[in-house]
Design a protein that fits this description.
With 91 residues, the protein is mostly helical. The protein has one domain. It has a two-stranded antiparallel sheet.
Amino acid sequence: MWVYVSSSIKGVTVYGARQFRAYILMRADRNNIGMEYAMEILILITITSAIGCGIIASNKGRSVVGHVILGLLFGFFGLLITALLSNKKAA
């Protein structure tokens, strides 16, 4: 689950994955960026996280496919989880 924290005058707002995507799309519409560009950015972030998870998992001797799926589902947090896991290769 992605978590995005936004600070404003009223306080701090925490968004879950769905709210984060809705927030990005709303901001894109408000700034006249265009909805297709906002979705492309989110897809690019997700794919980059999945590839990064696969590379890190491969270097640590863990399941590449499992960690790519983790990266696709959880984005940056999947990448963080993969990076923090211990090395399974014999030293």
